[in-house]
Amino acid sequence: MKVRRKGTNIKSRGKDISHNHGELITLPCKICEDPVNNCTAGTVKVTCWRCVQKIIEPPKAFGQKKSSIVKPRGWKFMKIYVDSEKNVYYKGTEQVDLKGTLEPTVVVPKPKKKKLTPREKEKIEVEKNHLFSEITQLKKELMKIELLPRQRKKIEKEIKQKDKKIKVLSKKK
Ligand SMILES: [Zn+2]
User: Which residue from 3, 29, 58, 121 could staple onto 48, CB 3.0 to 4.6 Å apart?
Assistant: First the structure.
């Protein structure tokens, strides 16, 4: 039985063997142009295993390292987020081409509201009550018929200010 050797003579036959699937030929990788052996005759383009590996799987160790980077809450919803290793994300999707082009995003955590102690709460209540009684007094003043318009305005202004203070105090919790 004759066994055809793969090599230049087969390759040079070109179209003659293009439909003969029993033949194995050598073709240059379409990416790196390294010779790729054992290609089925008729194959037009071939990618060597090294290039295939580069395409299908990014280096494992690198990927795992990335996941260890602590990202702030909601980073996926930020238009642009850059982690501590300068990996750039656009709406949560990594932009490999942009790596290292931007400075890491600085996320300032919102300060937690300090809860008031019972004593502080009591103090606020006392203050509010004081303001309420002051307002009651001022309103009584307003009832007086003999007030001049200018005096009236002054009292009304004072009431407004005290009302505002009460509102501010009421917001504290
Ligand atoms: Zn290749």
Answer: 29
- Which residues of the chain register pLDDT less than 70? 1-21, 57-67
What pLDDT, on a 0 to 100 scale, did the predictor assign at position 67? Answer: 62
Distance of CA 64 from the midpoint of ligand 1 (Å) = 26
pLDDT tens, position by position, 45-74: 899 988 988 887 666 655 555 567 888 888
- Between the CA of 8 and the centroid of ligand 1 the distance, in Å, is 20
Q: What is the DSSP secondary-structure string of the chain? A: ---PPPSHHHHTTGGGGTT-TT-EEEEEBTTT--EEEEEETT---B--HHHHHHHH---HHHHHHHHTS---TTGGGSSEEE-TT--EEETTEE-GGGTTSSPPPP--PPPPPPPPPHHHHHHHHHHHHHHHHHHHHHHHHHT-TT--HHHHHHHHHHHHHHHHHHHHHHH--
pTM summary value = 0.38
Distance 51 CA to ligand 1 centre (A): 4
Query: How far is the centre of ligand 1, averaged over its atoms, from the C-alpha of 34 (Å)?
Result: 6
Q: How many residues does the chain have?
A: 173
Q: What is the DSSP pairing of strand 88-90 with strand 93-94?
A: antiparallel
